[in-house]
Amino acid sequence: MSTSDQIISRIDELLTERDQEEWSDDPGENVMLEYSDAVAAYHGALHLATMLYGSDSHHARSLLQAVEKAKLSSDSRSYNFRMEIWPIARGCLQAMRGDVKFGLLDRIERRALGEVLGDLLNLAKQAINERTSGSQNVAAVLTAAAYEDTLRRLATSLTPPVTERIDLSQIISALKTGGVLTGASLSTGQGFLKFRNDA
C-alpha cells in the first residue's frame, strides 16, 4: 500500500467512525462516547495536518483555533467538541483527503526530499571545509548518497513506480523514459553515475 493510500485509509477511518455516530445537540445529554470519538478525530486530524503540511499550516492552525474558541464557550466540553471542533476537524480531513487523492502529496514528498538532499549536501560542504585528510572522501560519499537517494525517490513517482532495488543505470533509463530526466539533467545524471560508483 502506497503512502497516499495509507493516508486516505486513515482519513476515511476517522471520518467514517465519527460520521456514523448519532450526535445529540442537547448539551445536557450524556455524550461521553461521542466526546471521546470527537477528541480522537481532532487529534487524528491535527496529527495528519502537521505531518502533511507542517505545524504552522492553515490546517493545523484552524484546528487549534477551534479548540481555543470552544474553551471560551460556557456549554459542556463534549457539546463544544461536537459543535465547534468536529466540523473543523471533518473539513480538514476532507480537504486533506482531496489533496492526497489528487496528487498534491507528491509536492509535499518532493519538498521533504529537497530538505534531505540539502542536508546531505550541507554535510558534504562542511566535510570539505574541514580540510582534513579524509574530509574529501566523506564529502564524496555524502554527495554520492544524496545523488543516489534523489534518483531512487524520483523513480518512485513514475507510472508504474520503480520501487525495487535495481542498478542505478536502470533507474536513470527509467527516469529518461518517463520524461523526468531530459536534456542537461539527463547528461548530469549519467555523468555522475561513475562518480557515485567511485565514491
What does this structure look like?
It is a single chain. Helix 5 packs antiparallel against helix 6 (135-155). This protein is mainly alpha-helical and 199 residues long. It folds into 2 domains: 3-101, no CATH class; 105-198, no CATH class. The chain has helices at residues 3-19, 32-53, 58-72, 77-101, 104-130, 135-155, 168-177, 183-198. The chain has 8 helices and no strands.
Task: Name the shape in a single word.
Answer: elongated
Main sheet properties: none
Rg over CA atoms: 24 Å
Q: Which structural class fits the helix and strand makeup?
A: mainly alpha
Mean pLDDT: 79
Report how far apart the termini are. 34 Å
- H/E element order: HHHHHHHH
Number of separate structural domains: 2
Unreliable spans: 27-33
DSSP summary, beta strand count: 0
> How many helices in DSSP terms?
8
The portion of residues assigned to helices is over 70%
How much of the polypeptide forms β-strand, as a percent range? under 5%
